[in-house]
Amino acid sequence: MSESDRIQARETIDEQYKWDISSFYKSEEEWRKEFEKVQLLLKEVEQYRGKLNQSSTLFKEFIILREKIIIGMGRLYTYSKMRWDENTKINKIKSMFDQAQNLSTEVERVLSFLEPELLKDLDTFLRFITTDEKLSEYKRYFAQLKEQQQHILSDKEEKIISEAGAMAQGPENIFSVLSDSDLTFPIIKDDNGEEKRLSHGRFIRFMESYNRDVRKQAFEAMYNTYRKYINTYSSILNAHLKTDVFNTRVRNYSSSLEAALKPNEIPVEVYTNLIDTVNKSLPLLQRYLKLRKKQLKLDSLEMYDLYVPIIPDIDFNVTYEEACDIILKSLEPLGTEYTDVVRECFEQRWVDVFENDGKRSGAYSWGSYNTYPYILMNYQNNLNSLFTLTHEIGHSVHSYFSKKRQPFATSDYVIFVAEVASTVNETLLFNYLFNNYDDNKFKAYLVNYHLEGYRTTVFRQTLFAEFEKVIHEMIERGDALTSDDFSDIYYKLNEKYYAPTVNINKDIELEWARIPHFYYNYYVYQYATGFSAAQALSKNILNNNQESVSKYIDFLASGSADKPIELLKLAGIDMTSPQAVLTAFESFNEYISALEELL
Could you tell me the maximum CA-CA distance found in the chain, to the nearest angstrom? Predict the structure, then answer.
């Protein structure tokens, strides 16, 4: 390996490009002291069991103790995981994270009595929260608890379910081991004719190749490998579905869809409206696919032709410093209150910027209640990293405002609203770049990049969501699903979404086997709803509507102070109506027209 091919060691990276996570702990010794403190606090919990309804004073003491435990546990867990993510080769740090995981399980077990005990005498506790300022912070918690009352079981039953939690993770863990560790993919030839072993990480790179033979080779090699294990994958997915259905029935939900959405206070209509609206808008996807086919000059558009950029790569080298400057300028429509936080993010080193040997791949935004919201990056000097950085900044500023303005009880927000903040940032960045660079090839590349966001985040994720809904409903009816059944359902959905413009290659029927999100229990629809809501919000913000900006900041600062649907309504978006998704598709249509003009 040449010197230039080596990934740099972390100690060689300048400190200004590493996150400063001292807002957690100044040293590992401080971490260990808090670990011992949380262990001691846990021992105090038992004295409150069965007595919480005796007085508001006693209940308040317990609530304060519980907050100390959960906040301390959050710091311990997050810090150790972030330190491990810096370099996964350091066993000492991995050991710290393992200890934090074990303590987290113990915290959950010790505190599991709370909700069953509250539900035994809910009226008393509802009275308590009206008599004390600290306890009043939990009004939302009790509103949620009351709504979930029929789905929370006895103390003993909740303990059993808590203990069984590890078994419920079995299908996802088995899927991960099989897919990430045990599968061996064949060797294929890359663009230069060099032999390279196919992997999950390389698959999309091969699918983006301008050499069609490379794309076809990679596509067939990927699914021929999965075909060998397809019955195993069918068994794993069946086990996961049965776990979801068990949870649905034991907790008295009408369907697994309701069981997944109701705890986050999302109406089932949001899910079904999304599928219905996207289905009605499939002619727009066909319009884009026809443009792709025309631009690639293909007689037939195959499933392995969907990821190759229809505009050749452009030379857009952007350093981290330049990215910070561009992002700040792109976010100016959100006002100084917002950009001041972004500036602090850069200046106070919330970002761990560059790849180093042993560092976790990908990107995320993370922190705990009383720390900064940090960002892990593996920054490359390209457009994709620029968009990833502003995406994660969206999450971090959301967390910053929420934790600044909300008490601990309502400081967290659910995934349903999380993707809105990140996608608004991406849309504002796209708008800034499009309006400030004159090169038509670059503009066309940008528009196509944005259109691919619609295709992969709205259309593709909704296809996934529809597949999840169908297979869960079949298991709920008592149907048996074989690998052939899964494949047939998945193939027909691809046919509905992509035909007739795309030739639906037989191998695509196996794609369901490689999607980890099917083990996340109705998770993916939130990508599509979040993206759609963000398009509508961005349109309002870019119209220099100060009221819209003010409402948006208030939305970011709301945490879980109300139902997520209601919070979005305050920002001007009603996700119980198809309108937000329809507005997104109006923009999608406009972008297709813009791309046609630029080509």
Answer: 77
